[in-house]
Amino acid sequence: MTATAWDLARTGSREDPIVELTGYVHRLSRTLSLAPSEPLLLQALVLDFPARFQAGAAMLARCRNDGSLVVTSWFGVPAFRDVSGSLPVQDSWPQRQALRSASALVWPAAHDVEGSFPAYVAETREARPLAAAQLAAHGAPSGVVAVAFDAEVDDREGLERVMGTTADILSAYFGLLWSPRRPAAQPVDVPTSADQVVLTQRQTAVLSLMAEGMSNRQISLRIGYSESTVRHETMAIYRAFGVGDRRTASRVARDLGLVD
Which of 36, 97, 121, 133 lies at a CB distance of 3.0 to 4.6 Å from 41, suitable for a disulfide? Predict the structure, then answer.
């Protein structure tokens, strides 16, 4: 890929949606080639999602043999950080609606989610724009992937296309992994010493301000980078620490002596 095409893919150029989608598929496929655990996969999914949509969280739900649907992994959902095991998906959750739909579903604004799924909002303690798509194996629904966004979605058709592609790729991947003979994915390792964490100079600056309680917008104004760039670096910090939210990242950084 040329430098120009790569830049377009990373910034999600509206002028070339094919380049945007191709770049995203390349990054997701590269992640899957490493056989990541589910939490790490969701981290990468959020981090590598086309930047213009501002993905902030992701959940993976799986169909059980008894017909139930449970959330098995999540990333970027602070309300779930202390939850161990899986979470039952209620009939009033958006994942249930997505499980019954052959195409990706998008709720482009926070009020759409809040108005349609109050029980889901109460459980996650947040209302963000949301997209969800059915995963399938051997012609039958096998689960749901859902992504939440930090900004209102103004290209619903484009997001539906990205989510549909995501579901196709993950369906093929999990069709092989979700087998009774396959051991469960191992949890993400949180570093226990500072030398296990490799951060760039910019990520270190973002981490320091994050630990002070600043939002991405406040950090952007302070260090002079775009909010999108700050958000990207924030997600890279999460991945380096094996965590899914700002508070936990800040706590781990303090424990390791990386910030005051």
Answer: 36
Going by CATH, does the domain composed of 3-177 fall within 2.60.40.10?
Answer: no
What fold characterizes domain 194-255?
Answer: Arc Repressor Mutant, subunit A (1.10.10)
Listed in order, the ranges of the chain carrying CATH 1.10.10.10 are: 194-255
Every domain range in the chain assigned CATH 3.30.450.40: 3-177
pLDDT in tens, 34-44: 888 899 999 99
Question: pLDDT (tens digit, 9 = 90+) per residue, 82-116?
Answer: 787 788 999 899 999 999 998 999 999 999 999 99
The tokens describing 138, both together, are 């051997």
Q: Which amino acid belongs to residue 12?
A: G
CB neighbours of 181 closer than 8 A, spacing ≥ 6? none
The closest alpha carbon to 104, from 157, 63, 57, belongs to 157
Residue in 171, 233, 225, 168 with CA at minimum distance from that of residue 207: 233
The residues, any chain, with a CB within 8 Å of residue 21's CB and separated by 6 or more, are 50, 161, 162, 165
Longest dimension (CA), the chain: 53
Comparing CA positions, the residue from 41, 102, 44 lying closest to residue 72 is 41
